[in-house]
Amino acid sequence: MSTKYYNVTAQLKAFIDRHYFLYKHDISLEFKAVGVVILAEEQGLDDTLNTLVQYLDSSFKVKAHELVVLTGYAAREGDAKDNAELISLARDMGQTLAATLKGAS
Prior knowledge:
Blueprint: H1 10-18, H2 20-24, E1 34-40, H3 45-60, E2 67-73, H4 84-104
Parallel strand pairs: 1-2
């Protein structure tokens, strides 16, 4: 299963690989809110998002419409924190996730 995830970072690949046991043993986790943040240097946002949507659906039954997604570009370390629009979108994402969690409790 995990070999098809070829367009994500090594750290995310390790996360996916470590959850293979759950997938293999049909153990499902229940999520109340799922947020996905993807930053890319110059390309690949859509491919990475598609990979994560596929992984979350097949492994945890989280559908694309249930995700709160934030994507953006950052060429160098520190670029994201200096991007006012990206920071605003991250704040909105946090508020959306918090509201979802409040509604689920």
